[in-house]
Amino acid sequence: MTKKERDDQLREQRLRNEQLRSQPARPAPQVRGKNVQSRYPTFTRTALAPGLLAAVILLAAVAVIDSGWFTLFRYAIAILALIVCVFAYQAKQWWWIAGLVPIAVVWNPILPLDFIPPVWYALHLAAAVVFVAAGLLIKIPVSKDR
Q: CA–CA separation, 110 vs 92, rounded Å?
């Protein structure tokens, strides 16, 4: 293949690419009235950010269990547990509420429950696992109206 032929092929390929870019997007192929594939997600993971944030806070709170800072961590953990509960309710995944409400109760700063540090360590690790799992698995369907 000569240099001239390669240049011609490249020019033709560039023209085809420009033509494809300038065309409007085609609708998804139809099969019996349903879309085969959509470019847009069918669900959102709204509980992922608060779930991961709560897991990080839980692991950081292990360092301050016997100090005054632990009360602030309790507020954050209890509030994030209730936020993730709301997302579980919206997703109609009720079983997550059974794991998240006890977290909100155990870490609530208003009526605090006191445990010895080794128990707190185990509870923090277990709650972090629950938060990460809930954040990853709670999926809220996206409405078709958008």
A: 29
